[in-house]
Amino acid sequence: MKKISTFIRALLSHTLFLVNIGMAFWLLLCWYSSSTNPADVKYIGILSLSTAFPLLANFAFIFIWLFTRKKWRSLLPVTVLAIAYKMILPIWGLNFFSTNNMEPQLNGLKIMSWNVHGLGLFDKPFYKKRPKQIFSLVEKQQPDVFCMIEFYTNTDGSNKEASNYFKKAGYKEYRFMYDNDYGAKIYIGNAVYSKYPLSNFEEISIDQYIKMMRCDVTLPNEQKVRLFVVHLQSFLLADKEKALIEEIKNNTEQLEKNKKYSKTFLEKMHNAYVKRAPQAILARAEMDKSPYPSILCADLNDVPCSYTYNTIKGELQDAFVKKGKGLGRTYNLISPTLRIDYIFYDDNAIQLLGYKSISTPNLSDHNPVIANFNFKK
């Protein structure tokens, strides 16, 4: 009986170590994918979606092995985590005890960026009170500059409801850049409402139907900041496909019934990664030309530690990394690990005082992200 018990313990120990080896290899693949152009290795980009899971598993294995006789095995997860250490903070914000000041500053800049999902236009049926609910939330946060992604206007460039609301709230400047249409009378694109003067506005095409907005914000002390707004290639999943993924999450039996769709999903995802790579490269090149400190508000449609994220971020700082907490989810569907909306900034000249993201599943499929800045002397 004692021999059987010893054999079972040894079998479990070896099996667990094999699982640890698998998790270590998985994390190394994710690390490799973060610096590899998805066009060079097929499907490699998709691995970035899973980075949180092998990270968590390897952390768990450190503690598991430390409570066994074979403590030396903890060297495996420690080693791979040391190799991929730069992936930890973009995935998990650990700033639970740092100060987080969201109060507007004299000569500072508070920015809010939000993919508003067409202000409810894409919801069926359209809920007429949705725009007012979104605008009310923005007014409560009191950003100096509000960047809206997937904002809609009429073909003359106007959205009277938004314009009237923000004018009353003290926003003096408005810029809109469309990249798609929705029917014959509606444009979809990115908009900026600002309480400060905007100048040097330009639309920069980085792909078909993908544009980057650029404008300079002048603060009361004449400090200039170059603001970029971009919405990169999406996975182009239809609402039915998103609903199917949600159904599979809750009922794994559906996975067997829908195997024929799995290849379609993989191809769509791979193609989106391939398209985003050159878009990120071009956007990064444009930001490198800036004569002023830069801030980028972006819906990258990609997670931290992906090739897209690392390319477009460059030497800028991710506001979430400096002040965020937990997983920082910004996309309200599919997985709690999807942080795809960002505010990046030049920390050589700009000081981050606070950052937050508000959960808004009833208003948009994305959560807004807000950063509060001051400027270094």
Walk me through the structure.
It is a single chain. By secondary structure, the protein is an alpha+beta fold. It has helices spanning 2-33, 52-66, 75-83, 88-91, 130-141, 160-168, 239-250, 253-257, 259-287, 307-313, 319-323, and strands at 93-94, 109-115, 145-154, 173-181, 186-194, 198-207, 210-218, 224-231, 294-299, 317-318, 325-326, 341-345, 350-357, 369-375. It contains 11 helices and 14 strands. Helix 5 (130-141) links the parallel strand 2 (109-115) and strand 3. Helix 1 runs antiparallel to helix 2 (52-66), helix 5 (130-141) packs parallel to helix 6 (160-168) and helix 9 (259-287) packs parallel to helix 10 (307-313). The longest helix has 32 residues, at 2-33. The model has no long low-confidence stretch (mean pLDDT 89).
Task: Offer a quick outline of the entry.
By secondary structure, the protein is α+β, with helices and mostly antiparallel strands. 37% of the residues lie in helices and 25% in strands.
